[in-house]
Amino acid sequence: MAFKPGVCWSSISPNGSSPSGRRSGEKKTTMKIIRALVLTFFLTACQGAWIAGLVTRPGQALYHEDFSNPHSGWPQATSSTSSMGYQAEAYRMVVKAPLSDLQAVSGQSYGDVRIEVDATRQAGPVYNRFGLVCRFEDLNDFYFFAVSSDGYYAIGKIKNGVTSLLGQEMMAYSASILQGGEPKHLRFDCIGNTLKGYVNGQTLAITEDADFSSGDAGLMSGSYNEGGVDISFDNFVVYKP
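-> structure tokens emitted (241 positions)
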């Protein structure tokens, strides 16, 4: 079962709308206040995870999302080929088209992390892929740990838009991955140059790569020759290792 390169990857990242500009002619003092507020907004958004990393002890959570609040900032979008959003206090990703992928990230930036989530196949083919992403710089550059509902797994990366697996040429099979619609607890460690993937507490993949050192963390889901992949995620946590 090869992880097919060259598929169409898409990504939507949570973000806020920028403050609107003021009309000309306002007092200079007012403009200075506005600039200060805008600067504070962007510094807070960009440095929030960095500051949390300084005050958080190893093993503690840098970020936690149980998706119970549909206004917590994760992307919500629907099209003819895919949909993603909050549903029943979980995060649902549906890949309707074949040979397609989705990613959704937390809107933060991290260095070394341990990411965990509970993932459940709700519908669609078992010949699918879903999992976690780390060091997400943009749509074309990040690492991923993916599993399938028929028992396969892999660690890989997308660099400059090109998909490749790390440490293996094809997705590998493991009997420890419960098949079908059984819930799976996924964990992805991205620490230094070492990447490790776990399923239900068991280490399945270990590899090394030095291309990306920091970035966002989030979720992914994708299809092969058959669309309709429907995965729900819950209890997404980013830990300081």
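The helical segments are 28-55.
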